[in-house]
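Thread: Newbie trying to understand structure tokens

Hi all, I'm a second-year student working on a class project, and my supervisor (Dr. K.) asked me to get a predicted structure for one chain before our next meeting. I've only ever worked with sequences, so writing a 3D structure as a token string is new to me. If someone could post the tokens and maybe explain what I'm looking at, I'd be very grateful. Here's the chain:
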Amino acid sequence: MENAKKQILENRTLEEIVVSHGITKRTLNTWLMSLGEDREIRGFWVDNMLVETLEEIEQATDNFPFARMNSK
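---
Reply by user tm_fold:
Sure, no problem. This is what the structure looks like when written as tokens:
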């Protein structure tokens, strides 16, 4: 976990961190949620999640995938 914290402070993406540790994003998120008091790490982590989410939104090719699934 220390290496993951170091990578976050180096502004590595969550994807880069999970690949380098051979873990899932869910596992990484669980690790990071357990930090509790380390506000700097948590801030970088949340910022990183926001950036990745915005990138996913911008790259989306289908604006309404859930609406189509529920209409069937």
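A couple of things are worth pointing out once you decode it. The chain is about 70% helix and 0% strand. Helices lie at 2-9, 14-21, 25-33, 39-59, 65-70. Feel free to ask follow-ups in this thread.
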